[in-house]
Amino acid sequence: MRMLKILIVEDEKALLELYSIVLKKEGYETLQAHNGQEAWECMEREHVDLVITDILMPVMDGYELVELLREDNPLLPVLMITAKDDFLSKRRGFSLGTDDYMTKPIDVKEMVLRVKALLRRANIYAEKSLTIQNTRLDYDAMTVSRGEESAMLPQKEFYLLYKLLSCPNKIFTRLQLMDEIWGRDSQSDAQTIDVHINRLRRRFQDNPDFEIVTVRGLGYKAVIGK
């Protein structure tokens, strides 16, 4: 079985070594870079399964790196670990496409748990299918099946549902969903998300396997049925 490769981008040498040692003990292969430019060059040579990156770095910072990554590979998992703990920094990171965010000083055991969760989600996308209790989503066919019933969804509705169900209980802002599914250059506004969410709710109102919940002031999340 191929070892999963994790690229660590951090300009503090001691932290770079610490993260690498911890992840190697968990069975991952690690690659190291001291800034975003080194990381980008590394990814041109190597296949990478997940990126852990700092924000404040010389030459190319973490924001610039994530922006480049998302243009090249929208599904590559990215975990930001940084000293910048203010809301605006986090919002910028998430809006650029970061999947998860940790603030220094971190608990390396928690880092490992988050890495495993991100890789698990990435594997769901790679397999292009998702099963939630008795409901199955087929990415290529854009169908949702339960028992003998199967329905093909409009493209945006399917992508939206697949995204929410891939990460149960994770809150997605309207901006995150809009950028990822409609694209950052889309002329649609955030109300488009609300319209599609309402359609999905009506379509699956009798499905007990999941529910799409509004998190007031933030966005939406999928909750798995009991």
Explain this structure.
This protein is an alpha/beta fold and 226 residues long. Helix content is 43%, strand content 23%. The protein contains eight helices and twelve strands. The chain has helices at 13-25, 36-45, 62-72, 87-96, 108-127, 155-166, 174-182, 191-203, and strands at 5-9, 29-33, 50-53, 78-82, 100-103, 129-132, 135-138, 143-146, 149-152, 172-173, 210-215, 219-224. The strands form three sheets. A five-stranded parallel sheet has the order 2-1-3-4-5, sandwiched between helices. Helix 2 (36-45) packs parallel to helix 3 (62-72) and helix 6 (155-166) packs across helix 8 (191-203). The longest helix is centred in the middle third of the chain and has 20 residues, at 108-127. It starts with a strand and ends with a strand. The model has no long low-confidence stretch (mean pLDDT 87).
Condensed summary:
Helix content is 43%, strand content 23%.
- The helical percent reads 40-55%
Radius of gyration over alpha carbons?
18 Å
Class derived from helix and strand content? alpha/beta
Strand order of the largest sheet: 2-1-3-4-5
N-C termini distance:
34 Å
What kind of sheet is the major sheet?
A: 5 strands, parallel
The averaged pLDDT comes out at 87
The share of residues in extended strands comes to 15-25%
What is the ordering of alpha helices and beta strands?
EHEHEHEHEHEEEEHEHHEE
Question: Helical region count?
Answer: 8
How would the global form be characterised?
globular
